[in-house]
Design a protein that fits this description.
Layout: H1 4-13, H2 43-67, H3 70-76, E1 85-87, E2 93-95, E3 98-100, H4 107-117, H5 126-133, E4 137-138, H6 142-151, H7 154-159, E5 183-188, E6 200-206, E7 212-217, H8 223-235
Parallel strand pairs: 3-4
Antiparallel strand pairs: 1-2, 2-3, 5-6, 6-7
Length: about 240
């Protein structure tokens, strides 16, 4: 069975007339170009970035003008960094050598989609995606936003391996020897206020018999008042 990533590679390779042969590494006595480690940065990433940049120039230019207006400036989070933005020959604002992508409009979303979900990017990790984009684009909190974007990707959540230790087996809680010897409790809050100004319910459940008490309370009750209520309603009865 192929996973989602392998299926995407198969669909891509089906467009070419080629034959794939497996050659074990130990049998590869004479190293060829494909088995050598890359000494220079691949050009395919830069080509992808230039393609995205060229197609978005009119949209980004309009978004930059709108973002610097007084009504939209505070949402950009520049915090004075707009003074370091320079206008280049193409009429766009750059932070040093990287194009500034404003929050106004959906330019950031388009760039992130192209860099993560396109046919040739194949869902890179947050670190690799940031490394690919930081050479061309800039905005405040860029690395954090890329990490959040990758974390929300449904395809990555379904396909990619979780690099964490598997959790242990569920432990059976100890069975109480007597009723109301052990209890569990919960608070249900933000309810409509009653005539007695109660807006919450304190749920107390006996772990052995599963019998429960539902005590009307207010959300602002102190710990001392809750303790007295527990003594009067629970301890005195059981």
């Amino acid at each position: 069975m192929l996973n989602m990533r392998q299926r995407r590679w198969v669909e891509l390779l089906n467009d070419y007339d080629c034959e794939i042969r497996y050659h074990p590494g130990k049998a590869n006595v004479v190293a060829d170009a494909l088995s050598r480690k890359e000494r220079v940065k691949p050009l395919r990433v830069k080509a992808l970035g230039m393609t995205i940049q060229t197609s978005l120039i009119p949209q980004i230019k309009d978004a930059q003008q709108q973002a610097l207006q007084a009504t939209n400036y505070s949402a950009e989070g520049l915090r004075g960094l707009d003074k370091k933005l320079d206008t280049k020959d193409d009429g766009l604002l750059y932070f040093k050598i990287r194009m500034w992508i404003p929050l106004f409009g959906n330019s950031r979303t388009i760039i992130l989609d192209k860099a993560h979900k396109s046919r040739y990017s194949i869902h890179p990790s947050a670190d690799k995606m940031y490394k690919d984009l930081k050479d061309f684009y800039w905005w405040p909190g860029m690395k954090k936003q890329i990490a959040e974007y990758v974390d929300r990707c449904l395809t990555c959540l379904k396909v990619k391996v979780e690099h964490q230790r598997p959790s242990g087996l569920l432990q059976q809680p100890e069975i109480p020897m007597w009723k109301w010897d052990q209890i569990s409790m919960d608070f249900i809050t933000k309810l409509p206020r009653t005539s007695r100004n109660h807006d919450s319910i304190w749920v107390i459940v006996d772990r052995l018999t599963k019998s429960a008490h539902f005590l009307p309370i207010r959300e602002d009750y102190s710990m001392d008042r809750l303790a007295k209520l527990n003594v009067n309603e629970i301890v005195s009865r059981h």
